[in-house]
Amino acid sequence: MTQIRTDWTRDEIAALFDLPFTELLFQAASIHREFHPPSQVQLCTLLSIKTGGCPEDCGYCSQSVKADSGVEATKLMEVQSVLQRAAQAKDAGSQRFCMGAAWRNPKDRDMPAIVEIVKGVRAMGLETCMTLGMLTPKQADMLKEAGLDYYNHNVDTGPEYYERVISSRKYEDRLDTLQNVRDAGINVCSGGIVGMGETRSDRVGFVHTLATLERHPESVPVNALVPVKGTVLGDMLADTPLAKIDDIEFVRTVAVARITMPMSMVRLSAGRESMSEATQALCFMAGANSIFTGDKLLTAPNAGDDTDAALFAKLGLTALQQEEPMRACKVAEPAE
Ligand code: SAM
Ligand code: DTB
Ligand code: SF4
């Protein structure tokens, strides 16, 4: 019986990464089966409700003002337009509607519209998730009151590599917002990006940060860097193609996330569009049980519904219909 642990050491996590690949996959798949229905995958839909013009300097992001990516800055979408897109997502079978804004943090004047959006999407019977940048405790409380189910705020990588990717905020700022979200009683969605030129040891640090939070994030998105021309990291990768993350190393990261955070939904997130079916299948074997559907992420292309329907049929996967009862049971079980 696998216990939920938040006292993982870096050495233990490094040792998991070092396991023979088939052994790592076997352990991850076994734990996956203990906590989740292994052939069901949660479908989430993303919508950028405010695109581009972001003052932050995240080296991977097409929406930073520092990037020369051609992404045009827009205003916050009208509430009704967002609700229309949510209705389409629901019709397409999505369970969760995730809305992203290219902000360092929401301004207080933005909050009434955000609250209205959360209420409206929730009233459709969709789970709501927002990612709006840093939040104050008060803003987190307002979102909770509006009925927000999840807040996404990624730690992105290990603490040592963070300042190589982003200089306009600190790792601690990210952790503070995660704490504010937790304290407000909103479920936490936090993960990061693999393939930004980080080392194995940075990936160990990344998983270690998440797996040693007081409570594991309920959702852990693992993104593969989408290299966007005009961003620091996109251009670096174009110049040094060998820096591209190895598929097996990506799957290892998913497997280690699954083993260390057994109850979390591990989301195979950005980067699927350029991933082979075989690599995605290995990710599902390694414990990934959530994806973003549709043909667009925030600004980058995504696999698309037809492609995913074909993949699911080939692999015998089905859409997860509801938050799994198995997870609820595990929480209720007493520790030994
Ligand atoms: N501005 C908010 C923030 O940074 O928290 C929300 C939006 S931001 C685009 C959400 C996340 O998307 C980032 O934390 C990062 O992990 C991911 N992301 C952004 N650009 C990406 C890219 N090119 N490839 C992979 N993941 C990316
Ligand atoms: C997350 O971890 N991945 C999503 C979501 N959270 C907001 C965003 C991926 C963005 C990919 C690049 C783009 O579309 O611009
Ligand atoms: Fe802004 Fe978020 Fe992009 Fe960073 S990742 S530049 S905070 S939109």
TrEMBL record:
The keyword Iron-sulfur belongs to this UniProt entry's keyword annotation: yes
Pfam family, one: BATS
EC number: 2.8.1.6
Gene3D superfamilies, sorted: Aldolase class I
The protein, known as: Biotin synthase
Residues where [4Fe-4S] cluster binds: C54, C58, C61
Record domain Radical SAM core: where: 39-264
PROSITE patterns: RADICAL_SAM
Family: Belongs to the radical SAM superfamily. Biotin synthase family.
The protein's required cofactors: [2Fe-2S] cluster; [4Fe-4S] cluster
Binding-site list for [2Fe-2S] cluster: C98, C129, C189, R267
MF (Gene Ontology): 2 iron, 2 sulfur cluster binding; 4 iron, 4 sulfur cluster binding; biotin synthase activity; iron ion binding
Role played: Catalyzes the conversion of dethiobiotin (DTB) to biotin by the insertion of a sulfur atom into dethiobiotin via a radical-based mechanism.
Cofactor binding notes: Binds 1 [2Fe-2S] cluster. The cluster is coordinated with 3 cysteines and 1 arginine. Binds 1 [4Fe-4S] cluster. The cluster is coordinated with 3 cysteines and an exchangeable S-adenosyl-L-methionine.
Keywords tagged on the record: 2Fe-2S, 4Fe-4S, Biotin biosynthesis, Iron, Iron-sulfur, Metal-binding, S-adenosyl-L-methionine, Transferase
InterPro entries recorded: Aldolase_TIM, BATS_dom, Biotin_synth/BioAB, Biotin_synthase, Elp3/MiaA/NifB-like_rSAM, rSAM, rSAM_sf
Keyword Cell division carried by entry: no
Assembly behavior: Homodimer.
GO BP terms, alphabetized: biotin biosynthetic process
Pathway connected to this protein: Cofactor biosynthesis; biotin biosynthesis; biotin from 7,8-diaminononanoate: step 2/2
Stretches of the chain forming a coiled coil according to its record: none
NCBIfam families: bioB
Catalysed reactions listed for this entry: (4R,5S)-dethiobiotin + (sulfur carrier)-SH + 2 reduced [2Fe-2S]-[ferredoxin] + 2 S-adenosyl-L-methionine = (sulfur carrier)-H + biotin + 2 5'-deoxyadenosine + 2 L-methionine + 2 oxidized [2Fe-2S]-[ferredoxin]
